[in-house]
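DM from R.C. (forwarded with permission)

"hey, sorry to bug you on a friday — could you get me a structure for this? deadline for the figure draft is monday and I only need the backbone to look sensible"
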Amino acid sequence: MTTNPNDPANPISAEIIEKKELGHFNNPHDLKPFGLTKREQFAMAAMQGIRSNPIYEFKTAYYVAKMSIELADALINALNETK
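My reply, with the result:
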């Protein structure tokens, strides 16, 4: 199984769709993924970790963002290598 970085991080379960707990959707096929992708969520977690470390206190936001994305991509690649 591979991890697609563009898949939704928190997809809607089939049970919710079947119970029509999302009332405003008439057809389950009308549902589009929304929210963060896996890559975005991994980057967000990495960014929180980086910003909590005082060593990186004086780094620019751009540097922290780029480093977070690099870490997210590394995690996705490592997950895809695992058998």
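R.C.: lifesaver. The chain is about 50% helix and 0% strand.
me: no worries. The mean pLDDT is 81.
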